[in-house]
Amino acid sequence: LDRLGSLILNPDATIEMDLQPLLVPDSLAIVKGRIVGGNLATMNHMIGTGFLPDLTDNILFIEEVNEAAYRIDRMISQMKMASLFNNVRAVVTGSFEKCHPDSMIAEILTDTFNGTGVPVFSGLDCGHGRINHPIPLGVDVLIDPQRKKIVFNAA
Questions:
Q1: Which of 1, 25, 28, 22 lies closest to 93 in space, CA to CA?
Q2: What residues have CB less than 8 Å from 90, skipping those under 6 apart?
Q3: Which of 44, 49, 54, 100 has the fewest Cβ atoms within 10 angstroms?
Q4: Closest C-alpha among 48, 91, 90, 95 to residue 67
Q5: Nearest-CA neighbor of 14 among 123, 146, 140?
Q6: E runs forming strands in 47-113
Q7: Segment 30-72, tens digit of pLDDT
């Protein structure tokens, strides 16, 4: 609640959170962009409607709850076939709560983005899990792969 309160009272505050590299080239430097996204199923429903945020040159955040791994694979595949990942700077995942088998989620993401040059990070403590930190979407972020950190409202 402290983080939510500070976001409400000071929406321009800098927030730093931990990340885990999932698919990151050793030579990757700092990644900057605006973070957009949200729940994977909701984003899939918005494809073709004009309501899906533009992912071009942005950092995509995704999370999910109560979906089987094959459904997550289908949703990710649909977004890839719709060319939505072509100019994404990075992918950051929050929780995939009650998504089974959970061991498949990392495999789906690495299979999807392997060879594309798009780095993938996991472990952001937000989504539908027990630990659910609020994050501001639509703000500039900086990802430091060496420090394993994401910084929100990075100048």
A1: 22
A2: 31, 33, 59, 60, 118, 119, 120, 121, 143
A3: 49
A4: 95
A5: 140
A6: 59-65, 90-97
A7: 999 999 999 999 999 999 999 999 999 999 999 999 999 999 9
